[in-house]
Amino acid sequence: MMRSLASCLFAATVLAGPALAQAKAKAQNVPEIPYESVPNYLKLPPGLYMGEAMGVATNSKGHLFVYTRSANTRLFEFDQNGKFVREIGEGNYGFEFAHSVRVDPEDNIWVVDEGTNMVIKFNPAGKVVMVLGRRPPTVAGAVATNPAPPKPPAAKYLFGRPTDVGWDPQGNIFVSDGYVNNRVVKYDKNGRFLKQVGSEKAGSEPGQMNLPHGLAVDLKGNVYVADRSNNRMQVFDNDLNFKSVYDNIGTSWTVCVSPGPHQYLFTSNSNPNGNPPGSWDNTGEIYKMELDGTVLGRFGHASKQMGGFQVVHMMDCRNPNQIIVAEIESWRVQKLLLMAPATNGNTTSAAR
Amino acid sequence: MRHSLPNLLAASGLMVAAGVVAAAQVREISFDSADPLKFSANIPIGEVGGVATNSKGEIFVYTRVGHPTITIGTARPFAHGGSRLYEFDRTGKFVREIGQDSYGFLVAQQARVDPHDNLWVVDQMSSMVIEFDPAGRVQLLLGRKAESERVPALPLNPQPGAGGGERAADAEGPPRRGRGGPPGAGAQSDVFQRPTDVAWDSTGNIYVADGLGNARVAKFDKTGKFIKSWGSRGAAQGQFNGVRGIAIDAQNNVYVADAGNKRIQVFDGDGNFKSQIADIGAPAALCITPGSHQYLYSSNSNPPDDIDSAGEIYKLELSGQVVGKFGRAGKLPKEFGTVNALNCRGENDLLVGEIGNWRVQKLTLRP
Q1: By the CB < 8 Å criterion, does B245 face chain A?
Q2: Hey, which residues 268-327 in chain B have their CB within 8 Å of chain A?
Q3: Helix, strand and coil percent figures for chain A, each rounded to 5
Q4: Is the CB of residue B148 less than 8 Å from the CB of residue B77?
């Protein structure tokens, strides 16, 4: 989502011009990974519609959860064949403007809502078992989303349009926060604040962020943050100390890390909202990487047709060869079957 | 501790004799927690404003859920929805919803059941007190919802230091919204500003804690006719800084949670100041047990943006003597997230409604 008119105009200008190549560096000679999109993947019952597909995640049984902006924001569950199972959280106080859904190792379902500034944990039965953050109190009326400057310090237990959530193997909780603040917060498994990196202020130095838009945590507890408006990914260790920057992947909108002994990292250089002229030429692809930043391959392109992407907002990579993507501007979820790339050895290290 | 002058002297004498330092010596009461409500997928529970039981043990929950809405269309933005009222049986099974789509349900604040099993709810945003009979029909209304909202909202003018329970954007202060009324003290009749609680004396007179916008207690007879109100904003005796709760004992003494002044003030039924109870944090919710020996519970609720401070609940004699305390702020069972409601039908059996954790806990104390 564009943050303001000014940045919107700025982005359009940059995208239209040749300066883009410098502004959003990308690895060269990256192998194309062939793939196909599963036809008619999700089967919604008559009368039920998907809106902007913001969040997508699978659980250990292969069930799929989609957090979508309909007339009201809603959370849908589908089985492993894409058949609709149920709606979760209908009438939930924290559902206003979907941003992310993730499933933790115990199959609890977590949603991040940027309209209510809340992170909500549902157990597998669909019962709310923990909330982080707080919806701005209704009794105050319609108040400003972003307080007038000077920006107040980011609070331990309140968010400003948070974007994503993840966990390390110990169950510590990481929240990327977000459009108003520019930080990643670490809580223990019981929801007690431990630490943050970044702050309410945007910045481009290591450890500073400008719209942390997504995150993922590997099995060593390292945290990969899509630092979207800085056109890079940042990596932090488990205590949120800065480790490295991957900045040859365009604009990192969203990230995921696959499970298993050999983990892979995926990031999407999503085409910008509004499809500025020329933007399809150099955005829209997803990168497959090693955790150390080595780019292994790329796939996908901006398009309104199935098989192409319209602003990928989130990816599920529980199976690194079956990527499920949620798109904002095509109101759909696609399941992509990746095939082995032609091996040409042209991998490129992204670590700096 | 209660601080009427004779008591204060007596108490300080005793404390010196016993070598007691009050705050440090409060006994911890052990307790257990259970979830009293059976999960029902299509019955969402959000921030719990009120929880109450009737004489049969049925449980009522008034909760902030769904999509509080301001309608687009004209320059008069109309507010709708945002809270629902549920009934569960004594085993926690969902029975029914009451007051569906009520005009007055905006921000659930409190639920109480009177001695005749009528259910009363207080809404902080519509500034209404609504009585339902046991069948769920509207019986009596106090206050009137503002016709429309201001967009953008005017600031609530938070009062510094008015802690206890909710604070920050929803701290004390006149909302100056819509029709509204004169902000602050001295409002008459049933023009409430963010009322918080309701209670009755033995003859059925109605007392409304009013509240976070006004700073008074309003008294009505049982027909809803205004009798009087007392209080104004301030820290002196009989003044309030955030009236967050009210409870009445069998002798018709009125206990008022004066959170911003970190005290409970005790009045007779005519509003004459009798005493105050302090050293129990910022009282954000009260209840008094029934029976021949009554106890008073008071919650020093943590603010919603901080679970690393406060949160404990005090058990007191009506004299103000602290029996003990229990719990702390947090998200686990036996921890509390901004307690907004206390219900105590038994001396050691409580229901606790939480803003921060979107739940009700049933507590059993092991004194």
Answers
A1: no
A2: 304-308
A3: 5, 40, 55
A4: yes
What is the average pLDDT value for chain A, to the nearest integer? 91
Q: Which residues contact B129 (CB under 8 A, 6 or more apart)?
A: B120, B121, B122, B123, B141, B142, B143, B190, B192, B195, B198, B206, B208
Angle at A240 between CA A239 and CA A243, to 5 degrees: 110
Distances from the Cα of A120 to the Cα of A112, A133, A165, A214, A222, angstroms: 7, 9, 10, 16, 23
A115-143 tens-digit pLDDT = 999 999 999 999 999 999 999 999 988 88
Q: Which of A125, A134, A158 sits opposite B39 (nearest CB)?
A: A125
Tell me if A154 sits within 8 A of B167, measured CB to CB. Answer: no
| Side chain identity at residue B366, one-letter code | R
Per DSSP bridges, beta strands B335-336 and B328-329 are: parallel
pLDDT in tens, A320-329: 999 999 999 9
Span A295-348, pLDDT tens digits? 999 999 999 999 999 999 999 999 999 999 999 999 999 999 999 865 554 444
> What's the whole-number mean pLDDT along residues A273-278?
95
A278: pLDDT strictly greater than 90: yes
B97 touches chain A (CB under 8 A): no
The Cα–Cα gap between B34 and B63 comes to: 19
d(CA B239, CA B184): 11
A45 CB neighbour count, 10 Å cutoff:
7
**Residue numbers in chain B where pLDDT is lower than 70:** 1-24, 155-187
Chain B positions touching A185 (Cβ under 8 A) are none
Q: Strand B322-326 vs strand B328-329: parallel, antiparallel, or unpaired?
A: unpaired
Helix (H) or strand (E) holding A299: strand A295-299
Contact yes or no for A70/A87 (Cβ under 8 A): no
Instruction: Quote the distance between the C-alpha of residue B150 and its chain's center.
Output: 26
pLDDT at B185: 40
User: What end-to-end distance do the CA atoms of chain A give, in Å?
Assistant: 28
Q: CA gyration radius for chain B?
A: 19
Q: Tell me how close the Cα of B214 comes to any Cα of chain A, in angstroms.
A: 15
CA distance B354 to B36: 13
Poorest-confidence range of A37-41, A188-192, B163-167, B218-222? B163-167
Instruction: Round to whole Å and give the CA distance between B341 and B320.
Output: 20
End-to-end CA distance of chain B: 20
pLDDT of residue B234: 95
pLDDT given for residue B2 in this prediction:
46
Closest-CA distance, B59 to chain A, in angstroms, reads 19
> Per the CB < 8 Å rule, is B356 touching A128?
no
Residue that has been written with the tokens 């042209």 in this structure: A346
Q: How close A156 comes to chain B (CA, Å)?
A: 7
Q: Which of B122, B340, B358 to mutate to test the interface with A (most CBs of A within 10 A)?
A: B358
pLDDT of residue A5: 40
Q: Do residues A198 and A182 make contact, with C-beta atoms less than 8 angstroms apart? A: yes
* Residue A77 distance to chain B (closest CA, Å): 14
Spatial distance between the Cα atoms of B272 and B268, rounded to a whole number of angstroms: 5
CA angle A268, A270, A273 (to 5 degrees): 155
**Which residues does residue B205 pair with via DSSP β-bridges, in sequence order?**
none
